[in-house]
Amino acid sequence: MLRAGGLFFLRVNSASTEVYLRHTVVDENGFGGFTIRYEEGPKTGLCVHFYAREELVELARERFRLVDGPREDVTARTLPKTGSWSQWEAVWQKR
Q1: CA 82, chain centre distance (Å)
Q2: How far apart are CA 45 and CA 25, in angstroms?
Protein backbone atom coordinates (compact mmCIF):
# COMPACT_ATOMS: atom_id res chain seq x y z
CA MET A 1 0.00 0.00 0.00
CA LEU A 2 1.24 3.42 -0.89
CA ARG A 3 -0.36 6.43 0.72
CA ALA A 4 -1.45 9.47 -1.32
CA GLY A 5 1.61 11.60 -1.96
CA GLY A 6 3.97 8.62 -1.57
CA LEU A 7 6.66 8.00 -4.16
CA PHE A 8 6.88 4.85 -6.26
CA PHE A 9 10.32 4.10 -7.73
CA LEU A 10 10.25 1.68 -10.66
CA ARG A 11 12.92 -0.16 -12.64
CA VAL A 12 11.74 -2.72 -15.22
CA ASN A 13 12.97 -4.35 -18.42
CA SER A 14 12.66 -2.27 -21.58
CA ALA A 15 11.27 -3.62 -24.85
CA SER A 16 14.40 -2.32 -26.61
CA THR A 17 16.47 -5.02 -24.85
CA GLU A 18 18.25 -7.29 -27.27
CA VAL A 19 17.40 -10.62 -25.64
CA TYR A 20 20.54 -12.74 -25.80
CA LEU A 21 19.46 -16.16 -24.58
CA ARG A 22 17.23 -18.52 -26.57
CA HIS A 23 13.58 -17.69 -25.90
CA THR A 24 10.04 -17.75 -27.28
CA VAL A 25 7.81 -14.69 -27.46
CA VAL A 26 4.57 -15.71 -25.72
CA ASP A 27 2.71 -12.37 -25.76
CA GLU A 28 2.88 -8.95 -27.40
CA ASN A 29 0.77 -5.84 -26.82
CA GLY A 30 -0.23 -2.81 -28.85
CA PHE A 31 2.28 -0.59 -27.07
CA GLY A 32 5.26 -2.66 -28.22
CA GLY A 33 5.77 -4.52 -24.95
CA PHE A 34 6.25 -8.27 -25.04
CA THR A 35 6.62 -11.31 -22.81
CA ILE A 36 9.12 -14.09 -23.45
CA ARG A 37 9.71 -17.53 -22.00
CA TYR A 38 13.40 -18.31 -21.60
CA GLU A 39 14.45 -21.63 -23.14
CA GLU A 40 18.01 -21.64 -21.76
CA GLY A 41 20.13 -20.14 -19.03
CA PRO A 42 19.37 -19.49 -15.36
CA LYS A 43 15.80 -18.37 -16.10
CA THR A 44 14.83 -21.42 -18.19
CA GLY A 45 11.04 -21.78 -18.20
CA LEU A 46 10.49 -18.35 -16.65
CA CYS A 47 8.24 -15.81 -18.40
CA VAL A 48 9.57 -12.23 -18.31
CA HIS A 49 7.87 -9.06 -19.59
CA PHE A 50 9.68 -6.24 -21.41
CA TYR A 51 7.81 -2.90 -21.28
CA ALA A 52 7.39 -0.17 -23.86
CA ARG A 53 7.60 3.41 -22.55
CA GLU A 54 3.99 4.20 -23.52
CA GLU A 55 2.83 1.03 -21.77
CA LEU A 56 4.33 2.18 -18.46
CA VAL A 57 2.82 5.64 -18.75
CA GLU A 58 -0.61 4.21 -19.50
CA LEU A 59 -0.46 1.67 -16.66
CA ALA A 60 0.28 4.43 -14.11
CA ARG A 61 -1.81 7.23 -15.60
CA GLU A 62 -4.91 7.02 -13.42
CA ARG A 63 -3.32 6.43 -10.01
CA PHE A 64 0.03 8.18 -10.24
CA ARG A 65 1.55 11.50 -11.30
CA LEU A 66 4.83 11.15 -13.17
CA VAL A 67 7.66 12.85 -11.27
CA ASP A 68 10.71 11.72 -13.28
CA GLY A 69 11.24 9.64 -16.41
CA PRO A 70 10.66 7.14 -17.69
CA ARG A 71 14.26 7.17 -18.78
CA GLU A 72 16.03 4.25 -20.37
CA ASP A 73 19.26 2.83 -18.98
CA VAL A 74 21.11 0.79 -21.61
CA THR A 75 23.93 -1.59 -20.66
CA ALA A 76 26.11 -3.15 -23.36
CA ARG A 77 26.91 -6.81 -22.75
CA THR A 78 30.52 -7.84 -22.36
CA LEU A 79 32.13 -10.06 -24.97
CA PRO A 80 31.64 -12.78 -26.02
CA LYS A 81 27.97 -11.90 -25.50
CA THR A 82 26.45 -9.40 -27.91
CA GLY A 83 23.77 -6.72 -27.80
CA SER A 84 22.47 -4.76 -24.85
CA TRP A 85 20.11 -4.97 -21.91
CA SER A 86 17.83 -1.99 -21.33
CA GLN A 87 15.69 -0.97 -18.38
CA TRP A 88 13.21 1.81 -17.71
CA GLU A 89 13.58 3.89 -14.56
CA ALA A 90 10.79 6.17 -13.36
CA VAL A 91 9.42 7.85 -10.27
CA TRP A 92 5.68 8.34 -9.76
CA GLN A 93 3.71 9.98 -6.97
CA LYS A 94 0.50 8.37 -5.73
CA ARG A 95 -2.53 10.59 -6.35
Answers
A1: 19
A2: 12
Digit-coded pLDDT (tens) for 69-92: 999 999 999 999 999 999 999 999
Residue 55, helix vs strand vs coil: helix
84-94/7-13 β-pairing: antiparallel
Longest Cα–Cα distance in the chain: 47
3-class DSSP state of 60? helix
Specify the 3-state DSSP secondary structure of 78: coil
Q: What is the pLDDT of residues 32-56, one digit of tens each?
A: 999 999 999 999 999 999 999 999 9
Dihedral (Cα; 46, 14, 56, 28), 10-degree rounding: -60
Encoded amino acid at 64, one letter: F
